[in-house]
């Protein structure tokens, strides 16, 4: 996972943003770019995206990782 994606997970955990727009303001990325990245992360079970009204609320599902190499 890239440094930038780890930073996004950290921001999600710490800030608990109420929308992608709010997250965008904190990380400096545009909403369409964030949406693509977070949808990919959601497909791996790292993030959950909930639609509440007109907003998409992102939340981190995984914030700690263990990597084992055989």
Summarize the structure.
By secondary structure, the chain is an alpha+beta fold. The protein has three helices and two strands. A hairpin with a 2-residue loop joins strand 1 and strand 2.
Query: Order of strands across the biggest sheet?
Result: 1-2
Q: Tell me the structural class.
A: alpha+beta
Q: How helical, in percent, are the residues?
A: 40-55%
Distance between the termini: 19 Å
Proportion in β-strands: 15-25%
Uncertain regions spanning at least 5 consecutive residues: none
Number of discrete helical segments: 3
Q: Compute the gyration radius: what is it? A: 12 Å
Q: Roughly what is the average pLDDT, rounded to an integer?
A: 91
Number of strands: 2
Encode the helix/strand succession as letters. HHHEE
Q: Identify the overall geometry.
A: globular
Biggest pleated-sheet summary: 2 strands, antiparallel
Question: Descriptors for this entry?
Answer:
70 residues; alpha+beta; 3 helices; 2 strands; 49% helix
Q: Can you walk through the features of this model?
A:
The protein is an alpha+beta fold and 70 residues long. Helix content is 49%, strand content 17%. It contains 3 helices and 2 strands, in the order H-H-H-E-E. It has helices spanning 3-15, 20-27, 31-43, and strands at residues 47-52, 55-60. It has a two-stranded antiparallel ribbon. It is globular. The two termini are 19 Å apart.
């Amino acid at each position: 996972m890239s440094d930038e994606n780890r930073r996004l997970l950290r921001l999600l955990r710490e800030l608990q943003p109420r929308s992608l727009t709010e997250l965008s303001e904190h990380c400096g990325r545009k909403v369409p770019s964030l949406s693509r990245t977070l949808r990919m992360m959601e497909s791996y079970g790292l993030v959950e995206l909930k639609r509440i009204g007109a907003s998409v609320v992102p939340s981190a599902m995984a914030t700690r990782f263990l990597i084992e190499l055989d």
